[in-house]
Amino acid sequence: MPLALFDLDNTLLAGDSDYEWGRFLIKKGLVDEIYYEAENNRFYEQYKQGHLNIYEFSAFSFQPLAERSMEELQALHAEFMQEVIEPMIGQRAQDLVDKHKQQGDTVMVITATNSFITGPIVRAFGIEHLLATEPKIVKGRYTTEIDGIPCFHEGKVQRLENWLSANKMSLQGSCFYSDSINDLPLLEKVETPIAVDPDEKLAPLARHRGWKCISLRD
Predict the structure, then answer these.
(1) For residue 206, which of 218, 190, 195 has the smallest C-alpha distance?
(2) Cα–chain-centroid distance for residue 12?
């Protein structure tokens, strides 16, 4: 079964769930508005420029998770899904996921955004497999630390290789859809790299290498 890999933010989603979660927390009055907005924007710009420190960002973004119970977080996420995420799920993205599933491909989202945010989103797409950055959990609560290898940049390749080994699968026939220059290590690893609404750094590189470029925006 060939592997169809998808980045999530600005690829399947018409927006960035990690960044929008920060804005959602600000809107709800759950974080300090001035500080959190400035840091959220700073990290997002670093990500877009391709030089994000994933550990520094995760310590920042996991803090509101660590301060709340799982029950409170689940209720917040349900509201976040309805208000913010559902409008970002376009029909073209859903149709592409469904096409790969109908072809019998193994469909997976592989994303730097943490699993708390992305798990329900991936399930909404009807996708079974997810590799995401994992917040460490201690005594039933999130902490500000990453558990294991962050699913970012080269880490995406490492996490995927570990998953392939555990599931006795290979990258034969694989494809990977992404918008981001941060995903270059994995784009170079799969058989068929596909740029989706690529960012300003990935777009010229994809054209130069003759990679397929598509849009999933409705």
Answers:
(1) 195
(2) 9
Catalytic machinery residues: 7, 9
Q: Name the average pLDDT for the chain.
A: 97
152, burial (CB in 10 Å: exposed 0-12, middle 13-18, buried 19+): buried
- pLDDT category at 127 given cuts 50, 70, 90 is very high
DSSP 91-107: HHHHHHHHHHHHTT-EE
Q: SS3 for 54?
A: helix
Q: How far apart are CA 42 and CA 138, in angstroms?
A: 29
What percent of the chain has a predicted confidence (pLDDT) above 70? 100
Which DSSP category does 51 fall into? Answer: -
Threshold 0.85, pTM exceeds: yes
Residue 64 sits at the vertex; the CA angle it makes with 47 and 155, to the nearest 5 degrees, is 40
Q: Give how many domains the chain has, as a whole number.
A: 1
Instruction: Report the CATH number at residue 19.
Output: 3.40.50.1000
Per-residue pLDDT of 22-53, as tens digits, reads 999 999 999 999 999 999 999 999 998 889 99
Q: Which tokens go with 103? A: 């072809």
The two structure tokens encoding residue 70: 């799982």
- Structural domain of 127: 3-214
